[in-house]
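Working notes for the structural subgroup meeting. M.R. asked for a predicted model of this chain before we commit to crystallization trials. I am recording the input and output together here so anyone reviewing the notebook later can reproduce the run.

Input as submitted:
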Amino acid sequence: MDKTDEVALMFLGVDVGGTFTDAVVVDNKRILKQVKVKTNSENVLQGILTALDRILENCELDLLERVVVSSTVVTNALIVGDTEEVFLAVMPGTGMDITNSFPVAPFIVEGYVNHHGKVTKNVELNYLAAQAQAKGKRVAAISGKFSVRNQSNEVALRQELSELDFEQFFLGSEMSGELNFVRRTNSAYFSAAIYQKYAHFIHQIVTSIRSRGINVPIHILKADGGTMPIEVALQHPVEAIFTGPAASVLGIEALSLPEGQAISLDVGGTTTDIAFWENGRPLLANKGARINGFPTTVRAYHMRSVPIGGDSLLQRQGDAYLVGPKRVDVAAALGGNKATLGDALIVLSVVSFGDIEKAKNALIKLCYDGEDHLVVAMRFVEVAVSVLEQTIKEMIQEWEVKPVYTVNDMISGTSFRPEILVGVGGGATGLVQRLALKMNLPVSVPPGAMVANAVGAALARPTLIGTLRADSQEGYYIIPEGGIREDLSCQATRSELEDILRSWLLSEAQRWHLPVAGVEVIACEEFTTIQNYYSIGKIVYLKMQLAPGIIYGVQGQEVSF
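Returned structure, recorded in token form:
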């Protein structure tokens, strides 16, 4: 698909936030239509349906190319523990302490694959013990050390456990082709834990969209800013975590690409998502995202979600001014009975919505004798700004102390010195501008900032990741994500291996009807194997992906909701 064809397409994006559900239709590099409806936390789907009905009114459905949904369903389920019990079976081999490495105590199975990918011990399952521990559980996760170099033990264990009537299995080797047993295991576990809830949500989404006469492909946004077909999403549910922050990053990229070292802040009703940028690219988290404190293989941006937003409850305890983490469903300016951070911004005339008198009266209730409500409102805003500034300092420190892996890292360093703040979301004009003043930085709030997340979802490129490990001495290569193991010539070069992996990615893209902007190498390691002082072969590890990002930039527009 060439660039001209891309620009002619119409894209629909839906972003489900904690406070609002946004939808946009993007066509010919402009936001054609946008809607914002209140999210019903008790019935998230209803908000999506309302947004769809409003956005599709008078819309030419035959021009629609794709629908992308960004949802908090996975994130919220994992945070509050609304998940399925999982039978977690692991094969860690010998000499590895896995105490407290996983969210639940695993069922240990005998079986081992060594670092060369050779099975040194076949699977030995205590079936009765497994049956007892699996009682009442509908999903299972299986993971073995070095399984990305040989999946046979994981596959064999799945076959043996299939007699226990699990509805779904997730294998660690299919979560990622990377060497990190603990991260792969946690990814398999979390995918299993949310599978039932996610599958139900996906079914509702598909049914609802199809019932409205939309028959185009439906994609789900991923944490790394790419999209995946909804059918693939069910194979990797954990990839749908942190899609809200990812959507805001992509929205900023589409509306106003930051230059140099920049910090973006998406000020929503419930949280503020903070991301780092360098030379127009959002920075990725080192190694992978953590979920409830456990490391995973999920590629995600270097971000932090702070529980401060426009709907954050304002309270006073003695001399203390408290902003959040509790939120209020309706701000005082919109008819609520408690003051929110949004109300404070309204009375300070830095944002404009609702009834300023109602906001003022709510702030007056928080004033002690003789206090000016404007001074009190400013103090609350200053508290919120201080929390955001402190979080940014912590993120900078975290980034600068990350491990150094390459010579380039040592030469260029990992310092981060922000040059500009970029704000999106409903409270961006007030909160981010105040933060910029405190940090002595310029600020940009692009047109269309109110629906940046939905814009990001609409314009996100599909992406797939593949890994390849080759051992020329043993004469084979594997692509774990595809369950592929093939013979390999001992003379194979790295370039030839890249071609093999690229061809697999392109064939997968064709299978799922995905447009391809390019294939990029994101990791490569090459080692020479030595025996009796002579080189006898090479071990090569490759990781490549369909390049993520946005399809094109757009011209935003300011709309009052």
